[in-house]
């Protein structure tokens, strides 16, 4: 019997991350995922899928590095955990902004580098960025947009470092997707739809399908690239 793929999903308890956990476990992988606050949702998902849930705060650099080390060697690392700080940047608490940078920028870098140490040739590093890395049509989200643009540089640079080992590094850039972070019936629904040509929020499973393809054998020549899935939000 073929060895199971070992997968770590940082931020897997809810939303897009949970769909990624479901997809990889359904495809037969041995999956570990992290969460920070939603112990109940994490336990339920672990029971449902057979994945292992572990509490690890992505804002804690050393904890993230230790988690990646303990979960490895990894065939696939998916960095999904991400947070938003929304509102007038002149009134932001700088600590909130720094936490966003820790979770959305520092953790992906340190997790990817740590995973690469022991990753077998042909491994996959996939980061969930955002269509806001390319287009930010709303005020109040500069810190978030900055953090998601940063994933583009991460993927381009690390793809150069790891390509000789056949390890690919890619960013999946979702547009509006139905999750707690982005409720499809929220106050911004009509405005968000006006930016799109396919006027609906995407489903987490649609993002998970793209992640699964990037993790699979057909995508071994795809690296250092951004993969936007957004109903033409950023077009
Ligand atoms: P949710 O808020 O629905 O879920 C976020 C997930 O990340 C949860 O599992 C959460 O864990 C985990 N997480 C958050 N902070 C931390 C942390 N400090 N440490 C560990 N885990 C953490 O978000 P989405 O599913 O909507 O978003 C997932 C990713 O997709 C993010 O990177 C987001 O920026 C990106 N994205 C989302 C879009 C959307 O429209 N939904 C659009 C574009 C990009 P817990 O349950 O414990 O809080």
Compile the SSE list and pairings.
Layout: E1 6-10, H1 15-26, E2 30-35, H2 39-49, E3 52-55, H3 61-71, E4 76-79, H4 94-118, E5 124-128, H5 142-162, E6 168-174, H6 189-194, H7 204-215, E7 225-229
Parallel strand pairs: 1-2, 1-4, 2-3, 4-5, 5-6, 6-7
The structure holds NADPH dihydro-nicotinamide-adenine-dinucleotide phosphate.
The site of NADPH dihydro-nicotinamide-adenine-dinucleotide phosphate has 30 residues, from helix 1 and strand 2.
Write out the CATH superfamily name.
NAD(P)-binding Rossmann-like Domain
Helix content: 40-55%
Strand content: 15-25%
What value does the average pLDDT take?
97
- N-C termini distance: 44 Å
Q: State the secondary-structure class.
A: alpha/beta
Strand line-up in the sheet with most strands: 3-2-1-4-5-6-7
Main sheet overview: 7 strands, parallel
> What is the name of the CATH class?
Alpha Beta
Count of beta strands: 7
Discrete helix count: 7
Number of domains: 1
CATH architecture call: 3-Layer(aba) Sandwich
From the alpha-carbon coordinates, what is the Rg to the nearest angstrom? 17 Å
């Amino acid at each position: 019997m073929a060895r199971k793929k070992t997968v770590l999903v940082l931020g897997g308890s809810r939303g897009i991350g949970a769909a990624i956990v479901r997809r990889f476990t359904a495809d037969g992988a041995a999956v570990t995922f992290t969460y920070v606050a939603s112990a109940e949702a994490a336990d339920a998902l672990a029971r449902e899928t057979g994945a292992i849930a572990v509490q690890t705060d992505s804002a804690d650099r050393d904890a993230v590095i230790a988690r990646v080390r303990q979960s490895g060697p990894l065939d696939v690392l998916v960095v999904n955990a991400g947070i938003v700080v929304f509102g007038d940047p002149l009134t932001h608490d700088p600590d909130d902004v720094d936490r966003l940078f820790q979770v959305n920028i520092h953790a992906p870098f340190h997790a990817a580098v740590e995973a690469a140490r022991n990753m077998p040739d042909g491994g996959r590093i996939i980061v969930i960025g955002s269509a806001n890395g390319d287009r930010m049509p709303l005020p109040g989200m500069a810190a978030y947009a900055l953090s998601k643009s940063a994933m583009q540089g991460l993927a381009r640079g690390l793809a150069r470092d790891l390509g000789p080992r056949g390890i690919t590094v890619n960013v999946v850039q979702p547009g509006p997707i139905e999750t707690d972070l982005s409720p499809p019936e929220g106050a911004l629904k009509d405005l968000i739809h006006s930016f799109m040509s396919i006027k609906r929020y995407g489903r987490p499973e649609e993002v998970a399908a793209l992640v699964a393809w990037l993790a699979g054998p057909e995508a071994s020549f795809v690296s250092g690239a951004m993969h936007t899935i957004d109903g033409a939000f950023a077009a």
